[in-house]
Structure formats: structure tokens, C-alpha cells
Amino acid sequence: MNPQVLVLPGWQGSGAEHWQSRWESLYGYQRVEQHDWMRPLRGDWTARLEEVVLSQEAPIVLAAHSLGCILAAWWAAHSRHTDRVIGALLVAPPDIEREDLRQVLPGWSPVQRRPLPFKSILVASSNDPFSSLENSRRLAADWGAVFHDLGAKGHINAESGLGDWEEGRSLLLPPERIQLPPESPSVPSP
Predict the structure, then answer these.
(1) Which residues, at least 6 apart from 2, have a Cβ–Cβ distance to it below 8 Å?
(2) Closest CA to 125 of 77, 179, 167, 182
């Protein structure tokens, strides 16, 4: 059975030229529509994601951008249905603990830092105005995600000029491509 891809846009949604919207149009992926894209409430967004996950046949792959990544981590830490998800592509998660973003997105900080219970890849840009590469690397480590540096691509959105972003889709599917990071070598006790 082919996985169902759920698209998780960030704050303000994803416009027509965003790779997420293009993927929906090209491949039939399903957007998780939120009630309010301009004033995102973490509890409302989490409840909506849970509702959509429960309405799907497993397996599910999440394709998240920006605040959608933060949502995926929060949902995964609180849902009893994470076994339905087999993988996630987490693109350009913002540093919501930064003071300017905490003001714009109240209620989303602190970020959920538990390891995700499914395979994931975190894709970051070296010149993302909403997160440093170092912060993105820390999030990948905290979430147990494979880290992928895309280079200088801004916020990895429509303004980044990615078009259909086939490179991103190749990271997403097939799900076997979403691999767990290698095990950390164990350090013997003294």
C-alpha cells in the first residue's frame, strides 16, 4: 500500500507557488487545512492534525514546512496514533524560541525536543531568516532526524525558487529513503 502524504504548511499557509502546494497539485497529496492560518494556536492545530491522521488509512508520511515541523513534533509527543506515521520530511523549522518569533507565534515555545517515534529527515538552509543552521542541527539531533543541509535557499519556500522541488520529493519518497540516523557509539562505563 502506498503511503498517504499529508502536507503540513506553516504560519500563513503555503501559496500556489510553494513546493507543498505544487506537490498537492501534481501528486494528490492532502493538505492538513487549519482553521486559522494567520493566528495559529498550537492546541487547535494539533487537534486538527490528530483528526486528519485518524481519518486516513495507514501508512502516512508527513511533509512539513516551517511551523508545520514544530506542529509535527508537538503532535508526535502527545498523540497515541503515531504508529500510523512511517516517516516525515521536516523542512525549515523556525527557531520559535527566538524572542522575535515568540512574539509573533505566542504559545508555540518552548519547542518539543523529544525524539520522534518515526523516521525523519530535517532539511535546512544556511541563510534561513527564521533559524540558524546550528539551531536546525540541534533540532535534528533532538528529534533523531537525519540532517540535510540544502545550502543557501532562504526559508525553502516559494521565494527560494525551487519550483516542484524534485530533490525534496526524492528525500520524501519512497519511505525507505527516510532512514534513521546511525546509532551513536556506546561509550563503555569506567
Answers:
(1) none
(2) 167
CATH code given to domain 4-177? 3.40.50.1820
Q: Which residue has the cell 503540513?
A: 8
Q: Where are the alpha helices (DSSP H) in 114-165?
A: 133-143
Q: What pLDDT, in 10s, does the model give residues 46-84?
A: 999 999 999 998 799 999 999 999 999 999 999 999 999
From residue 119, alpha-carbon distances to 3, 162, 171, 186 in Å are 14, 24, 12, 21
- Could you give the CA distance from residue 105 to residue 130 in angstroms, rounded to a whole number? 12
Going by C-alpha positions, the residue among 85, 55, 88 that lies closest to residue 179 is 88
- Asked if the model's pLDDT at residue 90 lies above 90, the reply is yes
How far apart CA 76 and CA 117 sit, in angstroms, is 7
β-strand 60-65 against 30-31: which pairing, if any?
unpaired
* pTM to 2 decimal places: 0.90
Report residue 17: phi and psi, to 5°: -95, 0
Q: Which residues pair with 87 in a beta bridge?
A: 61, 119
Residue type, 166: E
- DSSP 3-state assignment of 52? helix
Report how far residue 57's alpha carbon sits from residue 103's, in angstroms, rounded to the nearest whole number.
37
Distance CA 125, CA 93 (A): 10
The residues with which 4 forms a beta bridge, in sequence order, are: 60
Residue ranges of the domains in the chain?
Answer: 4-177
